[in-house]
Amino acid sequence: MRIYITAILKANALYRDEVLATLQHMVEESRKEAACIQYDLHHTINDENQFIFYEIWESRAGLDNHNQQPYILAFARMAEKKLQETPQIYHMERIA
């Protein structure tokens, strides 16, 4: 069963460039993973510090493997200090 994810996060303005570079690296590496179907990064039009991921994963196992990758773990450590708030992460199943 595919897993769909929307993740919303907001960088502290002082660290925006560093956060963005880290997020772009995550995109590059995540797209190489076998279970990754789609991994897109956006920022909102009215707030360049707010980023939104839209992801599709082949399976729960693939997502679990993704969450253990070094670049994801590094982001988690950085997020505590360089984001304004805890990211909102929504795991979804497609119903229509």
List the helices and strands and how they pair.
Layout: E1 3-10, H1 16-30, E2 36-44, E3 47-57, H2 60-66, H3 70-82, E4 88-92
Antiparallel strand pairs: 1-3, 1-4, 2-3
Unreliably modeled segments: none
* Residue-averaged pLDDT: 96
Q: Tell me, what's the shape?
A: globular
Instruction: List SSEs in N-to-C order.
Output: EHEEHHE
Q: What is the helix content?
A: 25-40%
Structure report:
The chain is α+β, with helices and mostly antiparallel strands. It is built from 3 helices and 4 strands. It has helices spanning 16-30, 60-66, 70-82; strands spanning 3-10, 36-44, 47-57, 88-92. It has a 4-stranded antiparallel beta sheet. α1 (16-30) packs antiparallel against α3 (70-82). The mean pLDDT is 96.
Short description:
This protein is α+β, with helices and mostly antiparallel strands. It is built from three helices and four strands.
Keywords, separated by commas or semicolons:
alpha+beta; 96 residues; 3 helices
